[in-house]
Write a structure and sequence with these properties.
Radius of gyration: 21 Å
Distance between the termini: 49 Å
Number of strands: 19
Helix content: 10-25%
Strand order of the largest sheet: 3-4-5-6-7-8-9-10-11-12
Length: 402
């Protein structure tokens, strides 16, 4: 299941995840079929990758689980998708409608008419950019939050908002970042292209990471996120490249890279992995590394303010890192990791099983150069410099039950 594409003129070793019919010969002699199947009760990486091949072949009704209970259906108008839906046991839990300006997707897992998640993408005809708004209502214990991503050329402007007690939304963070999102280490080191053997390892680990992410979100009750994660892989497909990230992207400390962290992207999910992912222990295991990069395509980019916090506690302030930690190393995860991943506060009963929060600070300074967390508003206002860059909104309260 999958193949290695020959080295091209650009000097990259590309690996494209795909499926082949049972009994068929692999397209490349160096390819190795990898069985990453799962319980037929839930989403399956094997089914999702087969669904991508079927959609590419013109199918409009594909299974996302081995038993066919979870399905993706699309309505086409020529080569364009005009409607898509996900069904569980024949009942619709997600519907996405397209028009000339973009699309809107709504998830309603309990079919009560109140969506748990709504995602809208609107294109700007003049600039060529696009704006994506994601609203989440995770349930009685969850925080309602809204994330707006504006994409123009190779940059993303991101605004995070949380709902206040009176029902109004307040901006918590806003920043501009690059379209591509790396996973790196502290300090520079050499890197290079991967070997064919390493590429096969990446292939197997990516299928395992896809399965781990879907199963983990289902276990956490985040069915809408699990389905979006699965449909992204099924509809877009995944391309992996082994390349020198320092030479090609200027990343002297990069282990892997997601080329586009825009959740409304319609091109293939493209992940590049550097040789150092196999040689430097600071990059960690391939499974969490590749799950981390896959999650960018569903959860967006990193919270840049988390990078001022000690590395071991950054996941408590960053959703991609938090979900990666919970899904690959749950015994070390904290209640703040749980809160970040689930979109709730650390005292949500669903987070009670986790370790106490490691960082402790619930206020942080949003200055470009001084993004520190503090236990109280008074401490934050005292310790956060009143520079021009921080003047408008110096201290922000991190969601907490305290």
């Amino acid at each position: 299941m999958g193949f290695v594409r020959a080295r091209g003129a650009e000097g990259l070793l590309l690996l494209v995840l795909a499926c082949r019919p049972d009994g068929a010969s692999p397209p490349d002699a160096g390819a190795t079929a990898v069985d990453a199947g799962s319980s037929s009760a839930g989403l399956s990486s094997q089914a999702v990758l087969a669904a991508h091949d079927a959609l590419q072949g013109g199918s409009t009704d594909v299974a996302l689980s081995l038993d066919g209970r979870v399905r993706l259906r699309r309505v086409m108008q020529g080569a364009q998708v005009v409607q898509a839906e996900i069904l569980v046991d024949g009942e619709r839990v997600m519907q996405r409608t397209h028009d000339a300006t973009g699309w809107t997707a709504v998830w309603d897992q309990d079919r009560d008419g109140v969506p748990e998640r709504r995602m809208t993408m609107t294109r700007d005809a003049e600039t060529g950019g696009r704006t994506t708004v994601v609203e989440e209502v995770p349930g009685p214990h969850g925080l309602r939050r809204r994330e707006t991503t504006r994409r123009l050329d190779e940059s993303l402007e991101i605004v995070w908002e949380w709902m206040e007690a009176d029902g109004s939304f307040s901006t918590v963070l806003d920043w501009t970042t690059t379209l591509w999102q790396p996973a790196g280490i502290e300090g520079p080191l050499g890197g290079g292209e991967c070997t064919a053997e390493q590429a096969e390892q990446i292939h197997a680990a990516t299928e395992e990471a896809l399965q781990r992410g879907m199963s983990c979100f289902e276990e956490l009750g985040m069915y809408d996120v699990a389905q979006f994660f699965a449909s992204q892989a099924a509809e877009r497909g995944i391309t992996l490249a082994c390349e020198d990230l320092e030479a090609n992207y200027g990343l002297a400390d990069g282990c892997a890279l997601n080329v586009s962290a825009d959740p409304a992207e319609d091109q293939r999910i493209s992940i590049s992995v550097d040789d150092r992912a196999f040689t430097d222990p600071r990059c960690g295991d391939l499974l969490p590394l590749l799950l981390h990069e896959l999650l960018h395509s569903s959860l967006g980019g990193h919270n840049p303010f988390a990078h001022s916090i000690e590395r071991e506690h950054r996941s408590e302030y960053d959703r991609v890192n938090a979900c990666t930690r919970i899904c690959t190393d749950r015994s070390s995860a904290t209640r703040c990791d749980c809160a970040q991943c689930l979109g709730t506060d650390p005292c949500d009963p669903r987070c009670a099983e986790y370790n106490p929060c490691g960082r402790g600070g619930i206020f942080y300074c949003t200055c470009v150069d001084q993004n520190y967390t503090f236990p109280t508003l008074e401490a934050c206002e005292s310790g956060c410099p009143a520079t021009i860059g921080c003047f408008a909104r110096r201290c922000v309260k991190f969601p907490s039950c305290q």
